[in-house]
Amino acid sequence: MRDHLTARGHERREQLLSVAATLFAERGYHPTSVADIVTALGVGKGVFYWYFSSKEELLVELLRSSHHELRKRQQAAIGDEPDPLRRIELGIRASLAWFRAHRDYFSIIQLAATDERFAPVLRGNEDVALADTARHVKDAVADGVIADLDPLMLARAIHGVIGRLTRDYLIERDEPIELVADLAVAFCLRGLNP
Fold this sequence. Notes:
Elements: H1 7-27, H2 34-41, H3 45-51, H4 55-78, H5 84-101, H6 103-112, H7 119-142, H8 151-171, H9 177-192
Helix pairs in contact: 1-2, 1-6, 4-5, 4-6, 4-7, 5-7, 5-8, 5-9, 7-8, 8-9
């Protein structure tokens, strides 16, 4: 990617990412070509290669940028909430709402998980996300409102619940977000009680 982009350049790059996300989610990564992406956007291949050296680089950027956007959504939801259990709840709700609003990205993450080339970026994203959650869990353990268990293990359990409910109930069954979020929060927080 070019280091210094104009406002129009940033907009064009975001358009490429958005179109690619839609196509990857609909068709899959391998069946979608660079030609498909630029055709859908109505530009030439040169435009694509101005911003990305390959389709693989574009997918890596999608994975990184979507994770960054999810974290921003979680951080905005949590704000400066002092209660660690409430921070966990707000994080769960923000995560589910983000995935509901960005179904394409959830599909892309699932797709990337099947290709070893994308494992390093997925692991990096996961490590950051788990550390974020584990920090809140540690605070709750210190406050005595969560059982004194391995915070990373508890963070993985929370993430597992969110991932599974997102896939099965938000993506596949299109259940109401409030129902799924309430279930996730109740299950996770009651399971964390000492």
